[in-house]
Amino acid sequence: MREKTDVLISGGGVAGLTAAAAFGAAGFSVICTDPAPPVTEEDDAGADMRTTAFLQPARKVLEDAGLWSRLAPNAAALKVMRIVDAGGEVPEARIVKDFDAAEIGEEPFGWNFPNWLLRRELVARIDELANIDFRPGIATRSLLARETEARVTLSDGATVAARLIVAADGRASPVREAVGIGVKTMRYGQKALAFAVTHPIPHENVSTEIHRTGGPFTLVPLPDRDGQPCSAVVWMERGPEAERLAALPVPDFEAEMLARSAGLFGPLKLVTRRSVWPMIAQIAERFEAERTALIAEAAHVVPPIGAQGLNMSLADLGCLLELAKAAPDRLGDRAMLTAYHRRRWPEVKARVMGIDLLNRTSMLSARPLRDLRAGALNALYSLGPVRKTLMKAGLGMR
Ligand SMILES: Cc1cc2nc3c(=O)[nH]c(=O)nc-3n(C[C@H](O)[C@H](O)[C@H](O)COP(=O)(O)OP(=O)(O)OC[C@H]3O[C@@H](n4cnc5c(N)ncnc54)[C@H](O)[C@@H]3O)c2cc1C
Asked: Quick one: which atom of ligand 1 is closest to the CA of 175?
């Protein structure tokens, strides 16, 4: 027998689970599938050691989905984004520029959370809503989209008719493949290490991005751990160097971290395992097909600079929901999905290109180019209106 649902979400990563909670809270019936059950404890095998800095606009989506009240007690606020250039002869901070959220409003830029904790709270919220059917361990297998509905076959043999398919099944999205949407991919030969550290010098809610070569070394505030100030780190390097660092014994790794962080926080102590993520930038040629919307990494992937990845995904979700709530009878029809594509694709394309440029600039190894980069940072920062525009653009404000 074929089941019916308003929305089928393929993928239960952070984006897919958030989409499930958001559509469920808005009153739509939802089925969400994922072959990999979510890992919701930090010490469990396969736990996602990344953190997500949700920027201001994401908060509304999380509030509407009934998630914010669950997350807020675990939030570390980001009040200042500090950019440090350490691209001189020795790895020392030679230029330090603070972008302060107080210059553009009363709120912090955003709030940082570990991804495993996000999954824990997302699953708990989904359990509260009777109209969401989350199916961990089950994959979306095949898809046949018609003008009136999409028919999906799941890995357990079940078939589902849905008015809207939301593809949140990651950068190699099987749904995107099934509907025949191509991607443009940019490769950097670069990898990111993600882990957490404690440090003697407090972060004071400042997120610090240190540039030298190979990519940025970024510390993002987390709540204190074992009575010590704590930060999440994303350390981007060319692939072989990232692999070498990931394999170092802990004392040697900590020594390398101290040097690469220009000693700004004192000695950094590794408190989690290190995970390694290959870096690409990617954008799908379209964000819609018959009865299907692509969101999150199924639609776009960027290197983790300026906390844009999942925030763009929540903006995708916010846009889809707004269209769905405005005309619930027309959920998933061509007009709704065309409007979604037109609103999101140009905005995402501009961000992907901007982050691509920032990442290439951050990777520079030739000294004269590093000096040019430092000069550009100085020049951009010293113009007040430009500085404020950059901050607002980073948040996705107009
Ligand atoms: C090191 C690092 C740090 C980052 N930091 C930030 C940050 O601070 N702020 C920010 O906004 N973003 C950040 N990002 C980006 C952010 O982590 C990603 O955008 C986000 O995790 C991707 O989520 P997703 O749900 O789209 O994809 P995924 O997490 O890849 O989820 C896709 C899911 O789809 C499932 N799936 C696969 N095949 C199927 C199928 N056939 N059927 C059903 N399900 C399927 C998979 O099992 C998986 O669970 C960072 C990224 C990296 C690499």
From this structure: 41
Question: Which comes out higher in pLDDT, residue 50 or 346?
Answer: 346
Output DSSP code: residue 65. T
Q: pLDDT tens digits for 88-108? A: 777 788 888 888 888 888 889
Q: State yes or no: pLDDT of 237 exceeds 80.
A: yes
- Here the CATH number for the domain that contains residue 248 is 3.30.9.10
Going by C-alpha positions, the residue among 84, 393, 115, 99 that lies closest to residue 208 is 84
What's the 15 CA to ligand 1 centre distance in angstroms? Answer: 7
Report the C-alpha gap between 368 and 372 in whole angstroms: 6
pTM above 0.90, yes or no: yes
Alpha carbons within 13 A on the beta-carbon side of 274: 21
Whether residue 337 is predicted with pLDDT greater than 70 in this model: the reply is yes
CA of 309 to the centre of ligand 1 (A): 9
Residues with CB under 6 A from ligand 1: 10-16, 33-36, 50-53, 139-140, 168-170, 174, 192, 194, 234, 277, 296-297, 304, 307-311, 313
| Ligand 1 atom closest to residue 16's alpha carbon, by position in its atom list | 25
Å from CA of 101 to ligand 1 middle: 27
| 196 and 337 in a common domain | no
What gap in Å lies between CA 193 and CA 190, rounded to an integer? 10
Q: Between residues 394 and 62, which one has the greater pLDDT? A: 62
- The CATH number of whichever domain residue 338 belongs to comes to 3.50.50.60
- Residue 193 CA: nearest ligand 1 atom is 1
Angle at 24 between CA 127 and CA 13, to 5 degrees: 70
